[in-house]
Design goal:
J domain-containing protein, J_dom_sf, Helix Hairpins, 2 strands, mainly alpha
């Protein structure tokens, strides 16, 4: 008979939890948690100059980025108090929870108001640009329409003082004109083909006379 032997491996203990000890913004800038703004600003400027990528090389950008992030978190009181309380830093805002909350609320509302004002300004600018575009387009279309009427009047030998209604078809020269003037009732009764033939005859006569046609 064969016996089954259980081999038990020795107990493996899990690694002990090591607290995540990240450098604080104050440590990055080398200032005390109770430091005032002038001291924080001075340290930030000096470190920014020393670690700028243009000075030490762009491959060492991380250190410069860490300094900018640290300064961003604590350079104004609303962000600084939120940063200190979220990380339990014993500093300027350690025992001022209520004051910090009120400051954060006012700061958030101010930011929201600025965002609304910027959005309204963008909308007003967009509306003004749309209106300007519509006005320019209308003026351009009106100018083109008047140019067509003037050219058609010259081609068909119509005095510019007459009131005309020009209707253009798919054919370049197929233009019919209705003259709204007294004593022209017979012309109004003519069919479109007759008026078209008369227009062609006038064009042919003018070509024979050596006059240039305006198209």
């Amino acid at each position: 008979m064969f016996s089954l032997v259980c081999h038990v491996s020795p107990e493996i203990k899990p690694p002990q939890n090591i607290p995540d000890r990240r450098e604080t913004a104050y440590e990055t800038l080398g200032v005390d948690p109770f430091a005032d703004y002038p001291e924080i600003s001075s340290a930030w400027r000096q470190l920014s100059e020393e670690t700028h990528p243009d000075r030490i090389g762009h491959d060492k950008f991380q250190e410069y980025y860490s300094i900018q992030s640290a300064y961003y978190n604590i350079y104004i009181d609303p962000r600084r108090c939120a940063y200190d309380q979220s990380r339990g830093i014993q500093g300027k805002w350690a025992d001022k929870v209520k004051e910090c909350d009120e400051m954060l609320l006012a700061y958030t509302r101010a930011l929201a108001q600025k965002d609304r004002e910027r959005a309204q300004a963008r909308e007003a600018k967009a509306r003004e640009e749309d209106k300007t575009f519509e006005d320019d387009t209308t003026e351009e279309m009106s100018g083109s329409r008047q140019a067509v009427i003037r050219k058609s009047s010259i081609i068909l030998d119509i005095p510019p003082s007459h009131k005309e209604k020009v209707v253009a078809s798919d054919e370049p020269e197929a233009v019919s004109v209705e003259l709204n003037q007294p004593g022209n009732e017979n012309a109004a009764e003519k069919d479109l083909g007759t008026r078209f033939r008369e227009a062609e005859e006038r064009l042919a006569n003018r070509a024979r006379e050596g006059l240039s046609l305006v198209r």
